[in-house]
Amino acid sequence: MIKKLVILFLLLMPLAMASEFNDKAVVELSVEETASVVAVQEGSGAIRIDYVQANLSLFPKEADNQVIAERTVSTIPKASAEFLGDKLLIKWTDPRDEMLKFVINAKVREINKIMTVPKKISFPHTGPYMSGPYDRDIDAYTKASLSADINYEIKKKSAEILEGETDYYRAVFRVAEWVNTNINYTLDTMTEDAVQKASWVLENRYGVCDEITTLFMSLLRSANIPVRFVAGQVYSDKEKSFGNHGWAEVYFPGYGWVPFDVTFKQFGWIDPTHLKLATEYDPSESSIGYTWRANNAKININPLDIKTRILSVSGNAEKLADINVEALRNRVSNGSYVPIKVTVKNLQAYYLPLLISITKAPKLLDETEKPVLLSPYEEKTIFWTAVMPSDIMKNYAYTTFIEAKAVFAGTASTNISFGEGNEYYSKQWALDTVQRLSPRTEKEFLPDLEISCNPLKEYYYRDETAQVSCLLENKGNTNFQPMKVCFEAQCKDADMLIGEKKEVDWQINLKELKTSDFVISIESRDMVKYAYPKLKIIEVPVLEISEFKPSEIKYNIDSNMSFILQSNAQARNITMNVKNVGYSSISTFSGLREIVIPFNSKQVRKGNAVVTLTYYDGVGKMYSFDKEFNIIVTEIPRYARLALWIEQLMPFVEF
Does 9 have pLDDT greater than 60? Predict the structure, then answer.
């Protein structure tokens, strides 16, 4: 009997980079910043302090997704405190205390939202960059700085990444993807205490968050894209607390500054545990400075201490996209490699950055998280490869769940059944399938053309010719000429005028089609859209029986009858009935298997064994045949021979 087990596999996010609160609508934070200076007597006279002034830029401020609910400054002893734009000036005049201290307390609401960019911005950007409040001249953010240096190698790498790109948002996204993929996050002590230059990070391919961000900045600035550094704090699931963190903001002409946290794979969006404290031209800039005038005193400065904690969490992020997950094979053998297809559709009239995560699955060949940028109303497909466990118990059927999740899209799930007797899918097959079906990235998405492709029958047998019909519809206000519809490398002309509907049919020789997973595209020179019709191909299972044993046996001996069962494709509900002996059954089967049936040699005293094999294909069609094997039964006693003789004369009498 086959027993069923359901196994749930949970995947943890890498490096504890993801926050458990990243899909919440609002996170309210409490922030306390404390710093102090101490005057130590130096010389023989009494300490005399005329004034000490602190100039601070590192504190919570209003931002697009950050609201200051409360903010107070207290000092010991009493001092003047004044907010001037993005600076805070604190001044002690003629203080009598030798220790001067200030405390900033704030309550901050972090709102989980996307900064909307509804239209394509051409890249490279040729117009002037306009300045905003408290910004330096925007053009300054395209220049090299102390840490974000620009040398020949950085210019060369930036040009290599951005070659052929015409979309400003996609250009920034491509640079972020490259840095995240190719630069390793590490807390190596060589880079913990001081920020290494971007050129060093590119050469050594590792760094902390500040250094990863700095390289991202340099690659963008060398392409004339303004970008600045953000200093702040972020919540870590691993530490269950906040820590210092750095990310970037990129200037989008006509829209403003858009956040990019390359370390967290949050490109164009940051989760609501990101506390923004300061924006800087370069991470080497000082966030707090002191000036003083004193006699007989040495001023010792204690570092700024920042304590951030979560006060409340409310709501879920707004749903802006649809998500769907599908296993390309949902019944496989143990150890199989299964492509997982995740489809996301942007429901908004603006660009939507998403971070797609596989949160439940067995082992994956890929990273659990993949960032995706969707243009207005775009639908995109992303692939992973899951590996089914190979070390499993026999006679059990297993089910594992696959769950995909994205902030602003929700979750979707499917399941895969695996166990012995199902078809095996190799790693090479899975990798080839993913490569063949993955969308090409060199073309832009066609938002106004709809393509829907479906086979005319629910299923086809391998020796048939399948017909797939594609309905094309131009829902926009643009005539698309010239256009082509392509199945694999076979293309047909399909110019689409405004409001036009058109049907294109494909005759597919299934004998030449290597897989049932394929893609149909409608494309122009610069734009493309894809359809993934689901074609169910039924392989007719051909079963064979061979290597029957035993070929000779003594009379009245208990033994095992065995033979090799072989199938070229998966068969279901297989029954092997040996006349007058017994039967064996298998629920699903393909490949090779030895079948063993206990018997007594008296049951085959006639010298033969007739095996009736009955089985079904994937859509329930039955197949059956008989196979006869000769067995030499020796040392048959006289009474048994007499019985056999009588049976031959009277075949309807059973002895």
Answer: no
Give the separation between CA 420 and CA 399, rounded to whole angstroms.
Answer: 12
**What is the rounded distance in angstroms from the CA atom of residue 65 to the CA atom of residue 111?**
5
First to last CA, the chain: 33
Asked if 342 and 381 count as a contact pair (C-beta separation under 8 A), the reply is yes
DSSP state of 122: B
Give 132's pLDDT tier (boundaries 50, 70, 90): low
Q: Secondary structure of 58-120 in the HEC alphabet?
A: CCCCCECCEEEEEEEEEEECCCEEEEECCEEEEEEECCCCCEEEEEEEEEEEEECCCCCCCCC
| Amino acid letter, 367 | E
User: Which residues have CB under 8 Å from 316's CB, separation 6+?
Assistant: 23, 24, 25
Following DSSP, what letter does each residue of 576-632 receive, concatenated?
EEETTTEEEEEEEEEEEEEEEEEEEGGGGTTSEEEEEEEEE-TT--EEEEEEEEE-E
Cα 189 to Cα 14, 195, 198, 207, distances in angstroms: 21, 11, 17, 10
Where do the domains of the chain lie, and which CATH numbers do they carry?
24-112+287-316 (2.60.40.2250), 138-268 (3.10.620.30), 319-438 (2.60.40.3880), 440-538 (2.60.40.10), 543-649 (2.60.40.10)
pLDDT in tens, 264-304: 999 999 999 999 999 999 988 888 999 999 988 888 999 99
Q: Is the distance from CB of 472 to CB of 451 less than 8 angstroms? A: yes
* Position 13 pLDDT exceeds 80: no
The answer to whether 403 touches 412, Cβ cutoff 8 Å, is yes
